[in-house]
């Protein structure tokens, strides 16, 4: 069972309190009605499935209830970083740094 | 025709009491509860009207005169008035800064008390409940087996556990099963 | 009593574990006596019994090989009674208790004479890769032949036939330092950590702490014996508040972030366990640091017929002698490639056991050992090997030959043969921590390297051979400092060899893996047939794939393969060890989660009333809901029919408390509702309610429900029973992440309210007198109204709403008043001829009206348009969840399946839900299906069967005749609209 650091609770909490909520930083445009079919497909259906670093959303479902973002390594399952919803995606440099 | 008045609340935990010398589980009296969700501004003003400084830190709580407020999330508090049974906490006027919803009857609660209290809870709660990690006054939403619960440590060896009322048979059964193994 | 107990092999002078009290047990129906503290294996050995099982594939007679969890042969069925029986228990681990029943496995009809042993004669058939080569075709043979055969052969013991009556417990625990293994290294580390004030958990799979120190009685630590030293350490640790000692506790799994799972066997050794105790306890420990002190496991020698009963590990013989006071024979041969076997031989000799010879595979042994052997009068032959043994159910001789000699041999009569080729550092937990073992060429063994987790390996499992060094290493591992004590007579275990095969691998049956009957020859065959990686060799031969996970065999298999491939061992690779370290019972994993505690069963405040009325219940998500209320003599169909017709003619009362409820509050509540639901919410006035549909962004229906607007800033949203949690989750997601600027907040109120639906022509007559604070006359409180008022004097939310098509009200009252209000309603309803109805009648009545149930009539690929709900999709809103998805080409394409009604041509015929629909019943199979039935019921009200179905282009097929092929008939149906009853909806407004 993983320990996940909730950026809102500012603490490590057991995985059993959390729910994964899919890939992070998927932008849902305000003018969705005008999206092309291709853009909608890319936005809603197409997901990365990387071996390595993934940026994903989690919800501290049985804790503070907040959705937040995480940088996780899919091979080691290690959480490299968690941060609040709405915060910018970590830069590639930062991710490289985190992996050290 | 006269309208029949219904005076008494019947909680699902009514009559539930257990003790084995190491741990006791007892039912909490019917209480008034609200779920408060608010902006910081709303939280401050609501706290004032309540006479409580709402906790701002994760896992924090504030208590005064039978009322207590538990931090559940950055915009969410569980506020309980043990001395009143009904909607004593619901504000009379609407505010644009908060939502206060009466959940007095949504939850039921037990007190888990005694030297075996931590062990009883740790049979099905994965959190570190040692006094150093979860001191008196700590409050948190977490899980107990397959039920979501709110734990509030009121004393060194006493926890208040709040949960949705329909989970009572499960929570009660699991507490009893766990209590049998708490002396270890 | 049929006792044959002599315990002739008991050595009184030894046996630190053994008490004086006799313990009586049975083995294969025969009564034996052992002593308190014995394992089943030591007690049987004390009675001269070596034959303890038959092997898995060849059914060869087998004796006990080891003295610990690595035992591959002596697997037993241990029983208290029919329900308390456990298969595949290691005789070397199971402690005996009075009345214990042990049964050998894998034999029929008896251990001495086993019919399956014919497999031994057929062994040329059962070569490596046998399963792959044989069970390929024909496909039909799988069901009839192969699978039954494999299942019979693969089941070692027998599963209990009755429910397990025992209790199992679980505990989540946290500590600074977890020490896995309570031998010398573990005890030192635990004490050093505890002295620094750390919270410590120390576990050991044995009943006692001390590890190998209890088997080697020669060692002195500052003058103390190993047993004295261990006992003193345990005494000190027990006195410390910050230490938890767990004996009989195996570290079975090492997971991420130092989550380590321990299995504690609490009562397995007790004759009459206290019923308050769980049988086993699972510990899920989160440790700041894990100290792995697993020790090392001795390897056997690989030579032809090395599996006869009486042939065992030298260290095991030493353990049986010193811990249990049992000599494994009277005339014991020794075959070794490691110094440690001499210690066993000398201990046995000291107790008068004849040691005819020590065959040492190596060319040299130290002068010191030679001198000691001479003292005991033991003949040592170096540079030689055992190439043959005899003895049917017990070894009785061995034949040896010098490596260099091509012929000529010497035979020795023996009644036991102890062997040792060296010791394998246990890397199981280290490997589970995702560490990569490193090959150490100097000592020819794998050792732990770096670990990605906060853990450290110490002692024998880390290749630290000298006890004096272990004192320093173990203390330093936890930041402590230790003095090297004065150690005497420590026999290091690092010497030896791997892959020991005295003869060419192709001769005879030289077993590598005893439990899976894999021989050196099988490994050679696998290599010859092209398996060049150990992962392939393992799967091809099944070496190391038995329940012991190759604790004895992995290194041998690897070395034999490496030699044949002429490659260095690390290049052939080591397989990864997986949890659990030892087989772990299901009970232990299940813990408290059984029976009523398997899953929560949620009950409404009105549940007990329904129980008292004799209702039948059905599970709906986690809820248990009243399905129907049968009267005496009624079948379910009768009851449902009566309930439906009573509601339509008079009225019915229904417990709808399980419906999900969410309070949506805030100045932006209406704006938020506009986003979440397909329809518009701006025009809805406070006091009015509306049916809403919620989609996901892909345009498919996600949930539905009636929403009441209580004020300009407050909505009372209802969801389906099963959808409550996921709807709230999705709404929270949108408020938190997509529209964080909106001032709107959500609270689940499902359980705040008990919901009592009163439906039918007399609904108002029932409800009206109970209500105060609102006028519910038809024109004042029309269909789709909501009011905050009092019912029976308690605060209530009253809806005028209908899921039956009749005049209806839903009374929401705070849940703790739910039953009292229900009874007040019932007190009015019953005299008027109304009934209580359950979910089944509710389903029938809603289907008569064509109301969908999300999840029954929809399946996650149905849009509101498909479901005939286009009227509930706003055209002008700039955005709502699903708006863009609904414009996708596939979703607006022609020919989509649409929800329609079906009437069977024979009105009495009720279709099966899920049945397929075809246009032409005469076509050949596979037929082209054009749709399927989603809901189907007998409607007593209409006196005919009704159904709903998803049908290609359904709306354009009204009136068409279609067919539903069933196994025994083809049912003719007519396509209709979905509203079967009161199509104009007049009854709602009564
Ligand atoms: Zn949190």
Most strands sheet of chain B:
6 strands, antiparallel
Give helix and strand order of chain B, one letter per element, not per position.
EEEHEEEEEHEEEH
CATH fold-level topology of chain B: Gyrase A, domain 2
Low-confidence stretches of chain C: 1-5
Q: What structural class do helix, strand and pairing data of chain B support?
A: alpha+beta
Euclidean distance between termini CA atoms of chain B: 60 Å
Structure report:
The complex is a heterotrimer of chains A (100), B (184) and C (990). Chain A has a single domain (3-24, 46-98), classed as Folate-binding superfamily (Folate-binding fold, 2-Layer Sandwich), CATH 3.30.2270. Helix content of chain A is 15%, strand content 33%. Chain A has helices at residues 37-44, 92-98, and strands at 3-6, 11-14, 19-23, 53-59, 67-73, 79-84. The model of chain A has no long low-confidence stretch (mean pLDDT 94). The model of chain B has no long low-confidence stretch (mean pLDDT 93). In chain B, the strands form two sheets. Chain B has a six-stranded antiparallel sheet with strand order 1-2-8-11-10-9. In chain B, strands 4-5-6-3-7 form a five-stranded antiparallel sheet, covered by helices on one side. Chain B has one domain (19-181): Probable tRNA modification gtpase trme, domain 1 (Gyrase A, domain 2). Chain B has helices spanning 40-50, 117-122, 168-179, and strands at 17-19, 24-27, 32-38, 61-64, 67-73, 76-81, 98-102, 107-113, 139-144, 147-155, 158-164. In chain C, a hairpin with a 2-residue loop joins strand 32 and strand 33 (623-628). Chains in contact: A-B, A-C, B-C. Chain A binds chain B through residues 1, 8-11, 13-14, 16-17, 62-66, and chain B through 58-59, 72-74, 76, 126-127, 140-143, 148. The complex binds zinc ion. Zinc ion (ZN) is lined by residues 6, 8-9, 60, 63-64, 66 of chain A.
SSE blueprint and pairings:
The complex is a heterotrimer of chains A (100), B (184) and C (990).
Chain A: E1 3-6, E2 11-14, E3 19-23, H1 37-44, E4 53-59, E5 67-73, E6 79-84, H2 92-98
Chain B: E1 17-19, E2 24-27, E3 32-38, H1 40-50, E4 61-64, E5 67-73, E6 76-81, E7 98-102, E8 107-113, H2 117-122, E9 139-144, E10 147-155, E11 158-164, H3 168-179
Antiparallel strand pairs in B: 1-2, 2-8, 3-6, 3-7, 4-5, 5-6, 8-11, 9-10, 10-11
Chain C: E1 22-27, E2 30-35, H1 40-46, E3 51-54, E4 61-63, E5 75-79, E6 85-90, E7 101-104, H2 118-121, H3 130-134, H4 140-154, E8 168-180, H5 184-195, E9 200-203, E10 220-221, E11 224-225, H6 226-238, E12 243-246, E13 249-255, E14 259-265, E15 280-292, E16 296-299, E17 311-313, H7 314-322, E18 332-336, H8 340-350, E19 358-360, H9 367-375, E20 380-382, E21 384-390, E22 397-402, E23 410-413, E24 416-420, E25 422-425, H10 428-432, E26 438-440, E27 445-447, E28 455-457, H11 467-477, E29 487-488, E30 511-513, E31 518-519, H12 520-528, H13 534-541, H14 554-565, H15 569-572, H16 586-590, H17 607-612, E32 616-620, E33 623-628, H18 636-649, E34 652-655, E35 660-665, H19 669-676, E36 689-695, E37 701-711, E38 714-719, H20 724-738, E39 745-748, E40 753-759, H21 763-767, E41 771-772, E42 785-791, E43 794-800, E44 808-814, H22 818-829, E45 835-836, H23 839-848, H24 889-892, E46 897-904, E47 916-918, E48 929-939, E49 944-952, E50 961-965, E51 970-976
Parallel strand pairs in C: 1-7, 8-9, 8-15, 9-12, 15-28, 17-24, 18-19, 18-24, 19-20, 34-45
Antiparallel strand pairs in C: 1-2, 3-4, 5-6, 5-7, 10-11, 10-29, 13-14, 14-15, 16-25, 21-22, 22-23, 26-27, 30-31, 32-33, 34-40, 35-38, 35-39, 36-37, 37-38, 40-44, 41-42, 42-43, 43-44, 46-49, 46-51, 47-48, 48-49, 50-51
Helix pairs in contact in C: 5-6, 5-11, 7-8, 12-13, 12-14, 18-23
The complex binds zinc ion.
């Amino acid at each position: 069972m993983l320990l996940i650091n909730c950026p809102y609770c500012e603490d490590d909490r057991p995985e059993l309190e959390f729910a994964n909520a899919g890939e992070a930083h998927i932008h849902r445009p305000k003018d969705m009605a005008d999206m092309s079919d291709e853009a909608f497909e890319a936005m809603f259906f197409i997901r990365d499935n990387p071996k390595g670093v993934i940026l994903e959303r989690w919800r501290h479902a049985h804790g503070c209830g907040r959705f937040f973002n995480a940088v996780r390594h899919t091979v080691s399952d290690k959480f490299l970083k968690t941060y609040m919803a709405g915060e910018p995606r970590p830069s590639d440099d930062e991710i490289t740094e985190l992996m050290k | 025709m006269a309208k029949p008045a219904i005076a008494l609340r019947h909680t699902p935990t009514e009559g539930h009491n257990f003790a084995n010398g190491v741990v006791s589980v007892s039912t909490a009296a019917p209480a008034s509860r609200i779920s408060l969700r608010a902006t910081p501004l709303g939280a401050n003003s609501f706290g004032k009207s309540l006479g409580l400084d709402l906790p701002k830190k994760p896992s924090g709580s504030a208590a005064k005169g039978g009322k207590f407020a538990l931090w559940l999330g950055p915009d969410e508090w569980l506020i309980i008035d043990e001395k009143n049974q009904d909607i004593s906490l619901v504000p009379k006027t609407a505010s644009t800064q908060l939502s206060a919803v009466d959940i007095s009857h949504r939850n039921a609660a037990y007190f888990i008390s005694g030297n075996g209290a931590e062990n009883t809870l740790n049979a099905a709660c994965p959190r570190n409940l040692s006094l150093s990690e979860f001191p008196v006054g700590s409050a948190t939403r977490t899980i107990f087996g397959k039920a979501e619960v709110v734990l509030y440590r009121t004393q060194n060896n006493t926890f208040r556990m709040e949960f949705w009322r329909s989970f009572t048979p499960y929570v009660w059964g699991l507490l009893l099963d766990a209590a049998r193994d708490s002396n270890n | 009593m049929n006792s044959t107990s002599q315990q002739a092999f008991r050595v009184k002078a030894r046996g630190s574990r053994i008490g004086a009290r006799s313990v009586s047990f049975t083995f294969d129906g025969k009564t034996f006596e052992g002593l308190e503290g014995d394992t089943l294996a030591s007690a049987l050995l004390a009675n001269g019994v070596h034959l303890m099982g038959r092997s898995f594939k060849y059914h060869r007679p087998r004796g006990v090989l080891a003295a610990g969890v690595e035992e591959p042969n002596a697997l037993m069925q241990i029983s208290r009674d029919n329900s308390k029986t456990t298969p595949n228990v290691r005789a070397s681990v199971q402690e005996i208790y009075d009345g214990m029943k042990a049964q050998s496995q894998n034999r029929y009809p008896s251990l001495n004479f086993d019919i399956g042993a014919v497999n031994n004669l057929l062994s040329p058939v059962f070569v490596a890769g046998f399963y792959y080569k044989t069970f390929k075709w024909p496909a039909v043979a799988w069901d009839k032949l192969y699978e039954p055969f494999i299942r019979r052969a693969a089941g070692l013991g027998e599963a209990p036939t009755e429910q397990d009556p025992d209790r199992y417990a679980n505990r989540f625990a946290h500590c600074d330092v977890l020490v896995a293994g309570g031998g010398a290294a573990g005890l030192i580390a635990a004490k050093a950590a505890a002295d620094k004030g750390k919270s410590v958990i120390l576990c050991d799979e044995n009943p006692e702490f001390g590890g190998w120190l209890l088997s080697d009685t020669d060692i002195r630590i500052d003058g103390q014996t190993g047993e004295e030293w261990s006992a003193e350490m345990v005494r000190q640790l027990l006195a410390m508040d910050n230490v938890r000692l767990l004996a009989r506790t195996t570290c079975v799994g090492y997971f991420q972030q130092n989550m380590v799972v321990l299995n504690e066997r609490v009562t397995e050794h007790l004759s009459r366990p206290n019923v308050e105790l769980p049988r086993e306890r699972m510990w899920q420990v989160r440790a700041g640091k894990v100290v792995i002190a697993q020790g090392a496991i001795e390897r056997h020698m690989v030579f032809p017929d090395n599996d006869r009963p009486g042939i065992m590990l030298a260290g095991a013989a030493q353990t049986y002698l010193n811990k249990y006071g049992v000599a494994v024979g009277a005339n014991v041969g020794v075959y070794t490639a490691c110094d440690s076997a001499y210690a066993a031989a000398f201990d046995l000799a000291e107790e008068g056991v004849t040691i005819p010879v020590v065959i040492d595979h190596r060319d040299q042994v130290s002068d010191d050992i030679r001198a000691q052997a001479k003292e005991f009068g033991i003949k040592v032959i170096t540079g030689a090997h055992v190439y043959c043994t005899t003895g049917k159910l017990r070894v009785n001789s061995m034949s040896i030959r010098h490596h260099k000699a091509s012929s000529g041999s010497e035979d020795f009569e023996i009644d036991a043969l102890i062997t040792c080729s060296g010791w394998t550092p246990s890397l199981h937990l280290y490997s589970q921590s995702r560490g990569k073992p490193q090959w150490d060429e100097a000592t020819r063994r794998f050792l732990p390297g770096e670990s990605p987790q906060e853990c450290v390996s110490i002692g024998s499992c880390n290749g630290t051979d000298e006890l004096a060094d272990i004192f320093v290493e173990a203390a330093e591992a936890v930041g402590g400092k230790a003095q090297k004590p004065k150690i005497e007579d420590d026999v290091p275990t690092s010497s030896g060899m791997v892959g020991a095969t005295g003869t060419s691998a192709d001769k005879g049956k030289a077993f590598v893996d005893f439990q899976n009957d894999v021989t050196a020859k099988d490994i050679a065959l696998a290599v010859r047939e092209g398996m060049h990686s150990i992962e392939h060799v393992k799967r091809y031969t099944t070496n190391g794939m038995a329940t012991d996970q190759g604790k004895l065999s992995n290194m041998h298999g690897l070395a034999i393969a490496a030699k044949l491939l002429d490659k260095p061992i690390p290049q052939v690779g080591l397989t990864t060890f997986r949890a659990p370290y030892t087989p772990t019972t299901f009970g232990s994993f299940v813990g408290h989660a059984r029976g009523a505690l398997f899953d929560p069963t949620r009950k409404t405040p009105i549940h007990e009333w329904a129980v008292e009325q004799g209702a039948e219940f059905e599970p709906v998500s986690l809820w248990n809901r009243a399905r129907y209320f049968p009267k005496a003599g009624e079948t379910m169909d009768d009851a449902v029919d009566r309930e439906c017709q009573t509601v339509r003619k008079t009225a019915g009362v229904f417990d709808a408390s399980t419906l999900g409820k969410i309070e949506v509050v805030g100045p932006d509540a209406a704006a938020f509702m506009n986003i979440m639901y397909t329809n518009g919410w701006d025009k809805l006035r406070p006091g009015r309610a509306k049916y809403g549909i919620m989609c996901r962004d892909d345009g498919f229906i996600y949930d539905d429900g009636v929403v009441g607007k209580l004020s300009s800033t407050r909505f009372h949203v209802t969801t389906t029973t099963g959808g409550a949690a996921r709807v709230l989750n999705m709404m929270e997601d949108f408020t938190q992440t997509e529209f964080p600027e909106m001032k709107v907040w959500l609270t689940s109120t499902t359980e705040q309210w008990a919901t009592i639906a009163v439906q039918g022509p007399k609904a108002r007559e029932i409800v009206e007198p109970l209500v105060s604070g609102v006028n519910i006359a038809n024109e004042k409180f029309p269909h789709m109204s909501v009011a905050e008022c009092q019912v029976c004097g308690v605060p209530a939310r009253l809806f005028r709403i209908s899921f039956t098509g009749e005049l209806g009200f839903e009374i929401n009252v705070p849940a703790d008043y739910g039953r009292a209000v229900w009874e007040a309603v019932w007190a009015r309803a019953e005299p008027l001829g109304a009934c209580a109805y359950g979910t089944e009648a509710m389903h029938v009545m809603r289907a008569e009206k064509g109301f969908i149930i999300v999840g029954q009539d929809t399946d996650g690929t149905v849009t509101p348009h498909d479901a005939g709900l286009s009227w509930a999709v706003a055209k002008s809103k700039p955005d709502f969840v699903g708006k863009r998805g609904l414009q996708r080409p596939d979703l607006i394409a022609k020919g989509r399946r649409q929800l329609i009604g079906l009437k069977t041509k024979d009105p009495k015929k009720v279709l099966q839900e899920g049945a397929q629909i075809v246009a032409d019943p005469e076509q050949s199979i596979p037929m082209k299906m054009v749709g399927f039935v989603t809901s189907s019921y007998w409607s007593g009200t209409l006196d005919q069967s009704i159904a709903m179905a998803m049908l290609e282009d359904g709306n354009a097929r009204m009136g068409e005749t279609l067919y539903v092929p069933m196994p025994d008939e083809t049912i003719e149906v007519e396509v209709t609209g979905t509203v079967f009853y009161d199509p104009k909806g007049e009854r709602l407004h009564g």
